[in-house]
Amino acid sequence: MQTELAREDQSRSPEQRLRPQRSRTDCPILLSPRLVLRAPHEDDIDALAHLANNANIANMVSRMPHPYTTADAADFVRRAKAGTIGKCVYAITKADNGAFLGCCGVEPHADERTVELGYWLGEPYWNQGYATEAAQTLTDMAFRTRDIDQIDARCRVMNIASRRVIQKCGFQFQGSGMVGSLALGGMVPVEWYRLDRKTWVSLRSWGGVR
Ligand SMILES: CC(C)(COP(=O)(O)OP(=O)(O)OC[C@H]1O[C@@H](n2cnc3c(N)ncnc32)[C@H](O)[C@@H]1OP(=O)(O)O)[C@@H](O)C(=O)NCCC(=O)NCCS
After folding, report:
1. Model-level pTM?
2. Which residues contact 15 (CB under 8 A, 6 or more apart)?
3. What is the number of domains present in the chain?
4. pLDDT recorded at residue 124
5. Whole-angstrom Cα distance, residue 75 to residue 66?
6. Pocket flag, ligand 1, residue 129 (CB < 6 Å)
7. Which domain holds residue 61?
8. Is the CB of 208 under 6 A from ligand 1?
Protein backbone atom coordinates (compact mmCIF):
# COMPACT_ATOMS: atom_id res chain seq x y z
CA MET A 1 0.00 0.00 0.00
CA GLN A 2 2.77 2.39 1.00
CA THR A 3 4.69 1.58 -2.19
CA GLU A 4 1.57 2.22 -4.26
CA LEU A 5 1.09 5.59 -2.60
CA ALA A 6 4.75 6.45 -3.11
CA ARG A 7 4.50 5.47 -6.79
CA GLU A 8 1.35 7.54 -7.21
CA ASP A 9 3.10 10.51 -5.57
CA GLN A 10 6.12 10.17 -7.85
CA SER A 11 3.89 10.25 -10.94
CA ARG A 12 2.67 13.74 -9.94
CA SER A 13 4.71 16.80 -10.92
CA PRO A 14 6.41 18.81 -8.11
CA GLU A 15 3.77 21.50 -8.73
CA GLN A 16 0.93 19.00 -8.25
CA ARG A 17 2.54 17.52 -5.14
CA LEU A 18 2.84 20.94 -3.49
CA ARG A 19 -0.69 22.06 -4.42
CA PRO A 20 -3.16 21.34 -1.58
CA GLN A 21 -6.10 19.07 -2.47
CA ARG A 22 -8.40 21.50 -0.71
CA SER A 23 -7.88 25.16 0.28
CA ARG A 24 -7.59 25.82 4.00
CA THR A 25 -9.11 29.02 5.31
CA ASP A 26 -7.49 29.08 8.75
CA CYS A 27 -4.27 30.94 9.58
CA PRO A 28 -1.76 28.58 11.16
CA ILE A 29 0.97 29.97 13.43
CA LEU A 30 4.15 30.20 11.33
CA LEU A 31 7.74 29.73 12.47
CA SER A 32 10.89 30.83 10.66
CA PRO A 33 14.49 30.85 11.90
CA ARG A 34 14.13 34.17 13.79
CA LEU A 35 10.39 34.87 13.80
CA VAL A 36 7.02 33.66 14.99
CA LEU A 37 4.03 34.87 12.94
CA ARG A 38 0.84 34.63 14.98
CA ALA A 39 -2.54 36.35 15.31
CA PRO A 40 -2.36 39.84 16.84
CA HIS A 41 -3.80 40.07 20.36
CA GLU A 42 -4.55 42.66 23.05
CA ASP A 43 -1.04 42.47 24.54
CA ASP A 44 0.30 43.88 21.24
CA ILE A 45 -1.75 47.08 21.37
CA ASP A 46 0.86 49.32 23.07
CA ALA A 47 3.77 48.20 20.88
CA LEU A 48 1.57 48.33 17.78
CA ALA A 49 0.39 51.88 18.53
CA HIS A 50 3.97 52.98 19.30
CA LEU A 51 5.56 51.50 16.15
CA ALA A 52 2.72 52.24 13.71
CA ASN A 53 2.52 55.91 14.63
CA ASN A 54 5.15 56.73 12.03
CA ALA A 55 4.56 58.58 8.75
CA ASN A 56 7.45 56.66 7.15
CA ILE A 57 5.28 53.56 7.50
CA ALA A 58 1.79 55.00 6.99
CA ASN A 59 2.81 56.75 3.76
CA MET A 60 3.98 53.46 2.27
CA VAL A 61 0.95 51.27 2.99
CA SER A 62 -2.56 51.81 1.71
CA ARG A 63 -4.86 51.58 4.74
CA MET A 64 -2.98 52.79 7.84
CA PRO A 65 -4.25 56.02 9.43
CA HIS A 66 -1.77 58.69 10.52
CA PRO A 67 -1.42 59.71 13.31
CA TYR A 68 -2.00 56.18 14.68
CA THR A 69 -3.50 56.03 18.17
CA THR A 70 -3.99 53.34 20.83
CA ALA A 71 -7.66 53.29 19.76
CA ASP A 72 -6.57 52.54 16.16
CA ALA A 73 -4.38 49.69 17.44
CA ALA A 74 -7.22 48.27 19.55
CA ASP A 75 -9.57 48.50 16.57
CA PHE A 76 -7.00 46.73 14.36
CA VAL A 77 -6.66 43.85 16.84
CA ARG A 78 -10.45 43.57 17.17
CA ARG A 79 -10.92 43.45 13.38
CA ALA A 80 -8.07 40.96 12.95
CA LYS A 81 -9.75 38.70 15.52
CA ALA A 82 -13.17 39.00 13.87
CA GLY A 83 -11.46 37.87 10.65
CA THR A 84 -12.63 37.51 7.06
CA ILE A 85 -12.66 34.06 5.49
CA GLY A 86 -9.35 33.28 3.83
CA LYS A 87 -7.67 36.48 5.02
CA CYS A 88 -4.77 36.10 7.45
CA VAL A 89 -3.39 38.95 9.53
CA TYR A 90 -0.23 38.17 11.48
CA ALA A 91 1.79 39.89 14.16
CA ILE A 92 5.48 39.53 13.30
CA THR A 93 7.26 38.67 16.55
CA LYS A 94 10.79 37.68 17.49
CA ALA A 95 11.19 33.99 18.25
CA ASP A 96 13.77 34.55 21.02
CA ASN A 97 11.98 37.13 23.17
CA GLY A 98 8.46 37.53 21.74
CA ALA A 99 8.98 41.23 20.85
CA PHE A 100 6.36 42.67 18.51
CA LEU A 101 8.07 43.90 15.31
CA GLY A 102 5.22 44.65 12.89
CA CYS A 103 2.48 43.02 10.86
CA CYS A 104 2.01 41.07 7.67
CA GLY A 105 -0.79 39.23 5.97
CA VAL A 106 -2.42 37.76 2.90
CA GLU A 107 -5.84 38.68 1.59
CA PRO A 108 -7.70 36.76 -1.13
CA HIS A 109 -8.81 38.51 -4.32
CA ALA A 110 -12.38 38.03 -5.52
CA ASP A 111 -11.17 35.54 -8.18
CA GLU A 112 -10.07 33.15 -5.36
CA ARG A 113 -6.97 32.20 -7.44
CA THR A 114 -4.84 35.05 -6.10
CA VAL A 115 -3.89 36.44 -2.71
CA GLU A 116 -2.33 39.83 -2.02
CA LEU A 117 0.70 40.02 0.27
CA GLY A 118 1.29 42.97 2.62
CA TYR A 119 3.72 43.80 5.45
CA TRP A 120 5.26 46.56 7.54
CA LEU A 121 7.88 46.61 10.29
CA GLY A 122 8.59 49.11 13.03
CA GLU A 123 11.42 51.42 11.94
CA PRO A 124 13.91 50.22 14.63
CA TYR A 125 13.76 46.78 12.99
CA TRP A 126 14.41 47.77 9.36
CA ASN A 127 17.29 46.41 7.29
CA GLN A 128 17.85 43.22 9.27
CA GLY A 129 16.12 40.90 6.80
CA TYR A 130 12.97 40.48 8.93
CA ALA A 131 10.47 41.54 6.24
CA THR A 132 12.03 39.18 3.71
CA GLU A 133 11.94 36.33 6.23
CA ALA A 134 8.28 37.04 7.08
CA ALA A 135 7.24 37.46 3.44
CA GLN A 136 8.93 34.20 2.38
CA THR A 137 7.31 32.33 5.29
CA LEU A 138 3.90 33.74 4.43
CA THR A 139 4.39 32.94 0.74
CA ASP A 140 5.20 29.30 1.56
CA MET A 141 2.12 29.06 3.80
CA ALA A 142 -0.16 30.56 1.13
CA PHE A 143 0.99 28.20 -1.66
CA ARG A 144 1.04 25.15 0.64
CA THR A 145 -2.40 25.64 2.21
CA ARG A 146 -4.41 27.51 -0.45
CA ASP A 147 -5.37 26.25 -3.91
CA ILE A 148 -4.16 29.51 -5.46
CA ASP A 149 -2.22 30.13 -8.67
CA GLN A 150 -0.37 33.30 -7.70
CA ILE A 151 0.47 35.87 -5.06
CA ASP A 152 0.45 39.59 -5.85
CA ALA A 153 2.35 42.37 -4.10
CA ARG A 154 2.31 46.12 -4.68
CA CYS A 155 4.65 48.83 -3.51
CA ARG A 156 4.93 52.54 -4.04
CA VAL A 157 7.27 53.40 -6.90
CA MET A 158 9.52 55.25 -4.42
CA ASN A 159 9.62 52.33 -1.93
CA ILE A 160 13.10 50.93 -2.57
CA ALA A 161 13.15 48.66 0.50
CA SER A 162 9.81 47.02 -0.23
CA ARG A 163 10.68 46.54 -3.90
CA ARG A 164 13.85 44.78 -2.78
CA VAL A 165 11.88 42.52 -0.39
CA ILE A 166 9.49 41.63 -3.22
CA GLN A 167 12.41 40.87 -5.56
CA LYS A 168 14.19 38.76 -2.90
CA CYS A 169 10.99 36.68 -2.68
CA GLY A 170 11.11 35.99 -6.43
CA PHE A 171 8.18 38.14 -7.55
CA GLN A 172 8.21 39.48 -11.10
CA PHE A 173 7.19 42.94 -12.31
CA GLN A 174 3.75 43.05 -13.94
CA GLY A 175 2.97 46.71 -14.40
CA SER A 176 2.19 49.94 -12.67
CA GLY A 177 -0.94 51.72 -11.55
CA MET A 178 -2.46 53.88 -8.83
CA VAL A 179 -3.86 52.91 -5.42
CA GLY A 180 -5.46 54.91 -2.63
CA SER A 181 -3.45 55.95 0.44
CA LEU A 182 -5.43 56.58 3.62
CA ALA A 183 -2.60 58.50 5.30
CA LEU A 184 -1.95 60.71 2.27
CA GLY A 185 -5.63 61.10 1.42
CA GLY A 186 -5.26 60.43 -2.31
CA MET A 187 -3.96 58.11 -5.00
CA VAL A 188 -0.27 57.20 -5.30
CA PRO A 189 1.66 55.45 -8.09
CA VAL A 190 2.54 51.82 -7.36
CA GLU A 191 4.34 48.93 -9.00
CA TRP A 192 2.58 45.57 -9.21
CA TYR A 193 4.51 42.30 -8.83
CA ARG A 194 3.43 38.65 -9.00
CA LEU A 195 4.85 35.26 -7.96
CA ASP A 196 3.13 32.37 -9.73
CA ARG A 197 2.98 28.85 -8.35
CA LYS A 198 5.36 27.38 -10.98
CA THR A 199 8.02 29.96 -10.20
CA TRP A 200 7.60 29.36 -6.46
CA VAL A 201 8.10 25.58 -6.98
CA SER A 202 11.27 26.30 -9.01
CA LEU A 203 12.61 28.67 -6.34
CA ARG A 204 12.05 26.03 -3.70
CA SER A 205 14.16 23.55 -5.60
CA TRP A 206 16.96 26.12 -5.94
CA GLY A 207 16.83 26.75 -2.20
CA GLY A 208 15.21 30.16 -2.58
CA VAL A 209 16.60 33.50 -3.64
CA ARG A 210 17.70 34.69 -0.21
C1 LIG B 1 9.57 47.74 3.48
C2 LIG B 1 9.97 47.16 4.82
C3 LIG B 1 8.87 46.20 5.29
C4 LIG B 1 11.29 46.41 4.66
O5 LIG B 1 11.56 45.75 5.87
P6 LIG B 1 13.03 45.22 6.21
O7 LIG B 1 12.92 44.21 7.29
O8 LIG B 1 13.92 46.38 6.41
O9 LIG B 1 13.41 44.49 4.84
P10 LIG B 1 14.66 43.51 4.61
O11 LIG B 1 15.73 43.85 5.60
O12 LIG B 1 14.16 42.13 4.55
O13 LIG B 1 15.11 43.95 3.15
C14 LIG B 1 15.29 45.32 2.83
C15 LIG B 1 16.15 45.44 1.61
O16 LIG B 1 16.03 46.76 1.08
C17 LIG B 1 17.33 47.33 1.00
N18 LIG B 1 17.19 48.76 1.21
C19 LIG B 1 16.57 49.38 2.22
N20 LIG B 1 16.65 50.70 2.06
C21 LIG B 1 17.34 50.91 0.91
C22 LIG B 1 17.75 52.05 0.19
N23 LIG B 1 17.45 53.28 0.61
N24 LIG B 1 18.43 51.89 -0.97
C25 LIG B 1 18.72 50.65 -1.41
N26 LIG B 1 18.35 49.51 -0.78
C27 LIG B 1 17.68 49.67 0.37
C28 LIG B 1 18.11 46.63 2.10
O29 LIG B 1 19.49 46.76 1.87
C30 LIG B 1 17.60 45.21 1.91
O31 LIG B 1 18.14 44.60 0.75
P32 LIG B 1 19.42 43.58 0.82
O33 LIG B 1 19.02 42.47 1.73
O34 LIG B 1 19.58 43.17 -0.59
O35 LIG B 1 20.56 44.37 1.36
C36 LIG B 1 10.15 48.28 5.89
O37 LIG B 1 11.08 49.20 5.41
C38 LIG B 1 8.86 48.98 6.20
O39 LIG B 1 8.08 48.51 7.01
N40 LIG B 1 8.62 50.13 5.53
C41 LIG B 1 7.39 50.91 5.74
C42 LIG B 1 6.14 50.14 5.36
C43 LIG B 1 6.24 49.54 3.99
O44 LIG B 1 6.86 50.07 3.09
N45 LIG B 1 5.57 48.38 3.82
C46 LIG B 1 5.52 47.73 2.53
C47 LIG B 1 4.42 48.31 1.75
S48 LIG B 1 4.48 47.74 0.07
Report:
1. 0.94
2. 197, 198, 201
3. 1
4. 98
5. 14
6. yes
7. 27-206
8. no
